[in-house]
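User: Just a sanity check before I run the rest of the batch. Below are the structure tokens for the first item. I only need the designed sequence back.
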């Protein structure tokens, strides 16, 4: 028992140190967001002092720089993220339930195709995707969630199917005896039981869509629509100069919502991932 406790303490210390290493980049962004541009270049690892500290000036500059409003970029990022994640959760959870309960040859082939999509690099399809998105008018913040649904379906279906396999079929049979159709059974019984995996898939997909740069950059018309990652790239002055202080401030503003969401949902994320990976 004593050996076990000593071993657990050692592991706790090791993982705590590793977590601090992962937090260093975020900490560097935070301290540099309060320093002037010159000191960010000269002393990137130094703490702000009386000479380098500029208060909230970088945050104000980052939000007001250029002709494109930062809050408009925030609005488009929120719109794309919310609609994309909602589509992914709804469509893939229904698909996973259908695959497991029908269990036909077609369903198995479709399931393995979804798994195969997880290993296809985005770079292999990005040029074809851009052409297709333009032809199908999927190049706006209101239609690009359909593209995200296609790319996010593989992981989501994999996690949902793992959880659905562990759900007792007797509950659905009892609902059918009581007169529930497939739609009512799914939304009234299955979907509430999928809560742990819904939260896990939701936060993972939110982190991906919110931070994604390449897909919106290729698909959206950048003269009309910018997400936060694209907005960060355009924080440039003449001759390509970049105000690193303002850039750090905008990056900090973009990662705070994800950090807060992950901190509140961490317990459910771990539970959902474990349930989707082990059951069945």
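Assistant: Here's the designed sequence for the first item:
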């Amino acid at each position: 028992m004593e050996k076990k406790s000593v071993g657990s303490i050692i592991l706790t210390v090791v993982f705590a140190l590793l977590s601090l290493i992962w937090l260093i980049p975020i900490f560097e962004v935070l301290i540099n967001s309060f320093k002037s541009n010159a000191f960010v270049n000269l002393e990137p690892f130094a703490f702000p002092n009386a000479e380098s500290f500029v208060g909230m000036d970088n945050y104000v500059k980052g939000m007001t720089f250029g002709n494109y409003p930062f809050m408009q970029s925030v609005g488009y990022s929120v719109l794309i993220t919310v609609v994309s994640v909602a589509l992914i959760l709804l469509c893939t959870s229904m698909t996973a339930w259908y695959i497991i309960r029908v269990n036909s040859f077609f369903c198995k082939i479709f399931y393995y195709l979804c798994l195969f999509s997880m290993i296809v690099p985005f770079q292999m399809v990005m040029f074809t995707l851009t052409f297709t998105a333009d032809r199908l008018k999927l190049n706006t913040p209101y239609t690009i969630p359909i593209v995200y649904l296609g790319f996010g379906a593989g992981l989501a279906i994999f996690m949902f199917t793992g959880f659905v396999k562990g759900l007792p079929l007797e509950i659905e049979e009892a609902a059918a005896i009581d007169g529930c159709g497939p739609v009512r059974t799914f939304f009234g019984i299955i979907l509430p039981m999928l809560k742990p995996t819904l939260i896990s898939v939701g936060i993972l997909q939110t982190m991906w869509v919110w931070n994604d740069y390449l897909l919106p950059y290729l698909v959206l018309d950048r003269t009309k629509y910018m997400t936060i990652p694209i907005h960060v790239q355009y924080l440039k002055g003449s001759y390509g100069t970049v105000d690193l202080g303002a850039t750090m401030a905008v990056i900090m503003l973009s990662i705070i919502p994800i950090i807060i969401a992950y901190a509140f949902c961490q317990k459910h994320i771990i539970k959902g991932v474990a349930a989707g990976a082990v059951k069945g």
